[in-house]
């Protein structure tokens, strides 16, 4: 076997088999397989055993790659430091009785005594899950779910969690909307693939993106076609990382996204204003893919014809293509908040995780003084009653005692200043506390 970025690809047998491509990276996108593979690397020493047509096992390894490959584990690390993983997946499929489905999932987790924290939402249109847990428990849930034909081909993404659980508790329940959007989702044709955007593989996305970002936009097969890169995330996500050529979203909550919906006068904040709906190619991306799928049905109803999404979202892209055409870090919706591309991509070195944005990509600005920041990680305002998520330079952190503005520094309930990569506990830990003014 050659040690390269994509080291293993196999197709299972049978009509339900799907391809799987596993790489030497701390994130794995898995489908069906019938083989076994050991994947050792620096910060994620596990063995992935693909035991049959639907099971994926992950166990801690005792042996790592030889030192010659520069993938040895630091001597200060304990074996169980990296035993936790974060799992993300979603799937649109008709579920006749979602309440019964929730009970079925809860019974399985309780019966198996699985240590899983996170969000698992189920409704008539499918499932959306983001959770953390010990690798054995986290993947036991995935393997069990895949035994159901409705979920047999879900795209599962797995990333390491060095500090245990990234979610405080488990929320497994019926939810009318798998993602929050103004007006809900029940009326959207999410179960009709023809109404959703065409999904591009990471390689296809990269090719399109490179063509769009060239001076000559008429390259290759894209002659005389308009291309619009649409970041279907929140503004604060864009602030720490995005694809080149994308405009910062004007919203800080996906539920309020309104690209292409306004009938009023053209505004600079809407990239889809005054766009030829039949001719323009809309390239949409988000973190894991679900928001793009949802929003593409809305745009389809608005008459946009050529809609494309990034399959598996940015995390899947970084795992396969690295940081090509991407600048900064990736915002994630758990306690880790921000992850560098090197966490996902095989070819990166450990030192790359600490490398600030370089060159002309000085997009990340301090919320307070508007100067460039090198630490691409949000912090919460120390004012418990504000709790704003914002980027801040080290000087302003010190000057404002961890607050987002001068007003907040005079608040009555101030949490202690946290430096570096530390994070406050979840807000409910402070909610009922009578914190003294600092």
Automatic annotation (TrEMBL):
Give the source's domain of life in one word.
Eukaryota
Q: Which Gene3D superfamilies match?
A: 3.30.70.100, Rhodanese-like domain
Domain named Rhodanese: residues: 223-326
Record SUPFAM superfamilies: Rhodanese/Cell cycle control phosphatase
Q: Which Pfam families match?
A: Rhodanese, Rhodanese_C, UPF0176_N
Q: Which InterPro entries match?
A: Rhodanese-like_dom, Rhodanese-like_dom_sf, Rhodanese_C, TrhO, TRHO_N
Q: What is this protein called?
A: Rhodanese domain-containing protein
Species of origin reads Vigna angularis var. angularis
């Amino acid at each position: 076997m050659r040690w390269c970025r994509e080291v293993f690809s196999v197709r299972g047998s049978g009509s339900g088999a799907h391809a799987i491509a596993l790489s030497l990276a701390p994130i794995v996108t898995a489908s069906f397989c019938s083989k076994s593979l050991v994947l050792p690397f620096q910060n994620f020493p596990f063995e992935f055993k693909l035991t049959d047509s639907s099971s994926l096992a992950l166990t801690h390894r005792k042996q790592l790659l030889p030192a010659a490959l520069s993938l040895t584990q630091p001597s200060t690390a304990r074996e169980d430091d990296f035993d936790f993983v974060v799992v993300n997946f979603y799937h649109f499929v008709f579920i006749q009785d979602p309440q019964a489905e929730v009970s079925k999932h809860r019974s399985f987790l309780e019966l198996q005594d699985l240590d899983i924290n996170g969000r698992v939402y189920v409704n008539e249109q499918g499932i959306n899950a983001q959770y953390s847990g010990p690798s054995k428990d986290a993947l036991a849930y995935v393997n069990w779910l895949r035994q159901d034909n409705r979920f047999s081909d879900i795209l599962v993404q797995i990333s390491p969690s060095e500090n245990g659980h990234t979610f405080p508790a488990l929320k497994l329940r019926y939810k009318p909307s798998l993602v929050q959007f103004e007006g809900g989702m029940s009326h959207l044709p999410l179960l009709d693939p023809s109404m959703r955007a065409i999904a591009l593989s990471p390689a296809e996305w990269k090719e399109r993106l490179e063509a769009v970002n060239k001076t000559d936009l008429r390259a290759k097969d894209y002659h005389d076609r308009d291309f619009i890169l649409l970041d279907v995330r929140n503004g604060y996500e864009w602030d720490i990382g995005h694809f080149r050529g994308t405009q910062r979203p004007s919203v800080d909550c996906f539920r309020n996204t309104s690209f292409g919906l306004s009938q009023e006068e053209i505004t600079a904040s809407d990239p889809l204003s005054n766009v030829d709906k039949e001719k323009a190619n809309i390239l949409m991306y988000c973190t894991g893919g679900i928001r793009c799928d949802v929003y593409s049905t809305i745009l389809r109803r608005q008459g946009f014809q050529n809609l494309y999404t990034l399959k598996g979202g940015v995390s899947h892209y970084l795992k396969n293509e690295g940081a090509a055409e991407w600048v900064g870090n990736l915002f994630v919706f758990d306690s880790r908040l921000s992850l560098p591309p090197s966490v996902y991509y095989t070819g990166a070195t450990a030192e790359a995780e600490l490398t600030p944005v370089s060159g002309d990509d000085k997009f990340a600005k301090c919320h307070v003084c508007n100067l460039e920041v090198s630490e691409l990680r949000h912090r919460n305002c120390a004012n418990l009653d504000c709790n704003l998520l914002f980027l801040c330079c080290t000087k302003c952190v010190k000057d404002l005692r961890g607050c987002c503005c001068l007003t907040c520094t005079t608040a009555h309930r101030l949490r202690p200043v946290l430096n570096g990569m530390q994070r406050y506990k979840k807000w409910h830990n402070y909610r009922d506390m009578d914190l003294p003014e600092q």
